[in-house]
Amino acid sequence: MTTPALFKEYIWLINTIYKAKAISLNDINERWVETEMSGGVEMARSTFNRHKDAIEDIFGIYIDCDRKNGYKYFIGNDYVLHEESIQNWMLSTLSVNNVISESLSLQNRILLESIPSSDDYLEETIEAMKKKRLISIVYQKYSSAESKQFSIAPYCIKLYHRRWYVLGRFDSGNFAVFSFDRIQELTILDDTFEIDEDFSAEKFFSDCFGVVHGEDIPVQRIVIRAYGTERNYLRDLPMHHSQEEIRQDKDSSDFSYYLRPTLDFCGQILSRGSRLKVLEPQSLSEQIHQMLLAAARNYE
Prior knowledge:
Layout: H1 3-20, E1 23-24, H2 25-32, H3 45-59, E2 63-66, E3 72-75, H4 86-101, H5 119-131, E4 133-139, E5 148-160, E6 163-169, E7 175-179, E8 183-192, H6 201-204, E9 220-227, H7 230-236, E10 244-248, E11 252-259, H8 263-271, E12 276-280, H9 282-297
Antiparallel strand pairs: 1-3, 2-3, 4-5, 4-8, 5-6, 6-7, 9-11, 9-12, 10-11
């Protein structure tokens, strides 16, 4: 069986068990034979066990069995399905891919977003990360008319708003974030590097809204008021992992955050228009106010 076909079966099995909460192998097979993947043939117990082991190895998802309740299977660590991890991202992406691949007749009615970043640079950077090799990039900022060359140690990559970014460390120990769609050339060098043992990509960006680290901007407690239905959008899709709803009434809700209010965070607030208002700190409230006034002047 091909690898893509196996992955489709893994995803189907995870989703079936997760949605059922607890399910026997017989019930799994009743649903399995109804799929096109099965060819009308039940899944053998040996195949089920191999799939179960592969799912744990690849996605870190443990399928347990409740022997006291009719030998029903369940996700033993379903909390991992809500974590921001590469395994969960893979699972989500493959699940969507399965749904779409089985709905090709609707291809003109399912619209997706493209990612403009170069796949070649992404693949090369990942290869350099695996081999702990430095990379040389020719890079041009949007704000600059000239390109510059940098040699960096690729510490991590991050996808944000349909763009891929690489976090690079210089010989000086300083970090910088580079967007793949602004890289003009990329070369894997022979020089190697050792990543700091205490480095954590998740921790590095934990106080950030997006990809701007903003070391010169301190972490602050920020309180934002959301009006009307906008609070529902924030509840369903929080702007930051630190988001907490601290007050609500029939017209609005207040949300608190602990992060660095960098320019990309300000841009996110501005994009919500009159539906959001910064209450604290006063300095950020005034900054957003001035940015709104500047925007309004463009229409005078």
